[in-house]
Amino acid sequence: MTTPAQPGVVRAHIAAALARGATALAGGLDAVGERYVQPTVLLEVPEDCPAVTEETFGPTLTIAKVPDMDEAVRRANASSYGLGAAVFSRAHGTQLARRIRAGLVAINSTTISLAAMPSLPWGGTGQSGFGRIHGPDGLREFAAAKAIARQRLTLPPRLTTFARTARADQAVATLTTLRHGRASTLPPRRHRR
Question: How far apart are CA 45 and CA 60, in angstroms?
Fold first, then answer.
């Protein structure tokens, strides 16, 4: 478990699902120890249970029957979380993976297999995680963009200077009136002393 409190979270998610009518195909409440949790597979978990709506971060799996792949994608994308997903399909894995809102999607494998590929960015979407590790996107997380520009041409009128003249102010007011059809006034110039 990731933290000492995590087995309690896993236990609460399993207990809530079982209390709402889910069936433990494997594991269950007895699978949760003080520091370790054995795998638990839950069937027919109501869609509003924490085991479905929250990130359990434990070895649990919920299985729900759906009439078609459109409904499966809809349910997967209904979560505010989106760390990782797995799609198992002989013919349509790539199309399904593209439709799922998640930071990473494995096709015919588990998301853990993606962690072993250092060229792929790893990170979630929505409320899952923050930023990326691995790959070019992961390297960008350790950098900050910085822009530096040098003025090469001085275009009249010069407005971004303390040496701005009343004539320049009047030229901008005239151009603004011509462009927008109403009189315009610039803030009064402030002179440095």
Answer: 12
Check: CB of residue 24 under 8 Å from CB of residue 46. no
Count CA atoms within 13 Å of residue 63 on its CB side. Answer: 8
Cα gap 159→164, rounded to integer Å: 6
Q: Domains for the chain: give ranges and CATH numbers.
A: 6-140 (3.40.309.10), 153-193 (no CATH)
Query: Would you call 81 helix, strand, or coil by DSSP?
Result: strand
- In the predicted model, residues of the chain with pLDDT beneath 70 are 155-157, 182-193
Cβ-proximal residues to 137 (8 Å cutoff; 6+ apart), any chain: 121, 123
CA distance 43 to 24: 6
What are the φ and ψ backbone dihedral angles of 166, each rounded to 5 degrees? -65, -35
Q: pLDDT per residue over 11-30, tens digit each?
A: 999 999 999 999 999 999 99
Provide the 3-class DSSP secondary structure of residue 122: strand
- State the Cα–Cα distance between residues 95 and 90, nearest whole angstrom: 11
Tokens at 185, concatenated = 């006034």
The tokens describing 67, both together, are 């009439």
